[in-house]
Amino acid sequence: MKLRLIAIAVLFTIGISPALAIDPPYQRQMERLAEIMGSLYFLQPLCSPAPEDWRAQMAELIALDEPDEDRRQRLAGAFNVGYTAYSRFHRACTPAARAAMTRLLTEAEKTARDIHTRFAE
């Protein structure tokens, strides 16, 4: 009797749970790239007179990837995490901010190249 109730509960749970989409194999790297772009969106205006529009580039990246709503939310969330993390500690362009930008730009370039090399068509 107890086993039967558990089986019914499992079937009921399976039957009413929404289908979960499967992430593409590059999702983790995309989220890291989004986080970096959010960080650069905050840092670069502090140190560069004509900054790159990282938010627009993130929007373009999301549009090109065509993620489902869940993935889109996670990418936007990662962007915001990067922005927030650097906004807590930097108020002006300091040597530390410049070093962080250099490191982030290098990592972004490597990550974007890796995603393209491994997963594009």
Automatic annotation (TrEMBL):
InterPro entries: CHP02301
The name this protein goes by in its record: TIGR02301 family protein
Organism (species): Devosia oryziradicis
